[in-house]
Write a structure and sequence with these properties.
Length: 372
C-alpha cells in the first residue's frame, strides 16, 4: 500500500485499485494529506468499506426495481416507485448502505411520523406509515440477500403505523339507489351504475366489459356477466389487465332486468365492435365525483363508487345468508369476504343462539339416550 508525495504541493496522496460490488476494478486517487500515514489510513479504510457494503442506496433501488418488474403487476410497481421517490430517495440518496444504520432508520421513522405530509398537507395515515415502513424493510432484506449486507437496519426497531382501520361503509338500499340513478341522464352513466349495484363488480371490471361479456349461462340459460379483465391506470394511461386475483376471473349471474338494460344500451352504441369496451366514454373519476355530490344533495349517506359493491354484498347477504355464494359472485375468497362484511349481519349470531335455544328446549326431553 504505497503512498506518494506530490513534489509541487508537498502533500501526500494515495492511488490504488479496488474492486467494487460488481467485481470491477476501480482506480482510486485521493490527494491532499499532510502525512504519509493519513494517506495510508485512507486507503486501508476505503478498501475495508468496499469489501463490505460499497453499494449506494440508489444502486440498491435500481436492482430492486429490476427484480420487482418481474414479480408484481404494473399498478403495484407504480405504487412502489411512488413510495421510493417520495419517501425513500429524498432521505437516503447518496448514502452507502454501510452508513444506513438502525439509528439512521430511527431518524427517518421520526421524520415520517412528525413531518411528512400527504398531498392534502395532512399527516400520513397510520395504515400508510405501516405500508411504507414494511416496504423499506423488504428493500433491506433484498440488500441482505444480494449484497451480503450483514444486518437489516429496519429489523429490530419498533415499527411505525398500524393496521388498516376498517373504512366506514355507507350502504344504499335499492330504493335509495333508484333515486340516485334518476339524477343521471347519460345512458352510459346510468347503465354503469346499475351494473355496479346489481352485479357487485369492481369499477375497473365494469369499465372493461365488452358486448361479448354479456352472456346467457350455458348451464342454465340465465343471464350473466363474464369478468376476465380490468381497466387500470399506469403512468396516467388506461390499460387492460387481467383481474385483480385468479378468483376474480368469474361468471356472475345477474337479474334479467339488468341484462335487458345492458342489451338495450349496447344496441344503441354506434358501430360497436365485439371487442370494444361498452363504457369506454365514462371516466372513473368523473362518475365517482358525481355519485358523492349527488348522494349528499339527496340527503343520503355520501358514498364512494366502491360502496355500490358493498351495497350489493349487503343486499345479497340479507337475502341468502350464504357468505360462500356471495364471495363467489364478487370474486373474493371466503376469508376476505368474512373479514370485510361479517359486521353487516350483526343479528345473525343472536339469531343462531336463539335457534339453538329453541332446539334445546323443545327436543331435550324427547331425544332418546344412546348408550355406547
Amino acid at each position: 500500500m504505497p503512498a506518494y508525495k506530490d513534489e509541487k504541493t508537498g502533500k501526500w496522496y494515495c492511488q490504488f485499485y479496488c474492486k467494487d460490488w460488481t467485481g470491477k476494478n476501480k482506480h482510486i486517487v485521493k490527494r491532499g494529506f499532510d502525512k504519509k500515514k493519513d494517506a495510508l489510513d485512507y486507503e486501508r479504510k476505503f478498501k475495508n468499506a468496499a469489501k463490505h457494503q460499497d453499494v449506494y442506496f440508489e444502486e440498491l433501488i435500481e436492482e430492486y426495481i429490476k427484480k420487482m418488474q418481474h414479480k408484481v403487476r404494473a399498478t403495484t410497481l407504480e405504487r412502489i416507485n411512488t413510495v421510493i421517490n417520495t419517501h425513500f430517495l429524498p432521505f437516503f440518496a447518496g448514502l452507502p448502505l454501510s452508513q444506513i444504520t438502525p439509528a439512521v432508520i430511527n431518524k427517518w421513522q421520526h421524520f415520517m411520523q412528525s413531518e411528512q405530509k400527504n398531498k392534502k398537507g395532512d399527516p400520513l395515515a397510520p395504515s400508510t406509515l405501516l405500508i411504507i415502513n414494511s416496504r423499506l424493510g423488504s428493500l433491506f432484506t433484498f440488500a441482505c440477500r444480494i449484497y451480503g449486507l450483514k444486518q437489516n437496519p429496519v429489523k429490530g426497531l419498533d415499527g411505525i403505523g398500524s393496521l388498516k382501520a376498517r373504512r366506514k361503509m355507507n350502504i344504499l338500499t335499492p330504493e335509495q339507489f333508484s333515486l340516485l340513478v334518476d339524477t343521471f341522464h347519460r345512458e352510459s352513466e346510468k347503465t354503469l351504475l346499475k351494473t355496479l349495484f346489481w352485479s357487485g363488480c369492481r369499477i375497473g371490471e365494469a369499465l372493461a366489459l365488452t358486448q361479448q361479456d354479456i352472456i346467457l349461462d350455458s348451464n342454465d340459460g340465465r343471464p350473466a356477466l363474464r369478468f376476465n379483465k380490468t381497466v387500470v391506470t399506469v403512468n396516467r394511461k388506461l390499460a387492460i389487465h387481467p383481474p385483480k386475483t385468479l378468483i376474480s376471473n368469474r361468471v356472475t349471474p345477474i337479474p334479467y332486468f339488468l341484462y335487458q338494460d345492458l342489451i338495450t344500451y349496447t344496441n344503441k352504441l354506434y358501430r360497436l365492435k365485439p371487442g370494444d369496451r361498452i363504457f369506454q366514454y365514462v371516466s372513473r373519476n368523473s362518475i365517482g365525483g358525481k355519485v358523492k355530490r349527488r348522494t349528499e344533495k339527496l340527503g343520503m349517506p355520501i358514498i364512494r363508487i366502491h360502496d355500490l359493491r358493498h351495497s350489493y354484498v349487503s343486499l345479497m347477504l340479507s337475502l341468502t345468508k350464504d357468505v360462500a355464494v356471495v364471495a363467489e359472485c364478487i370474486g373474493d375468497n371466503i376469508d376476505t369476504t368474512l373479514s370485510t362484511y361479517t359486521h353487516l349481519l350483526p343479528n345473525q349470531k343472536k339469531n343462531a343462539v336463539a335457534m339453538l335455544e329453541d332446539l334445546g328446549t323443545s327436543k331435550v326431553h324427547t331425544v332418546d339416550t344412546v348408550v355406547l
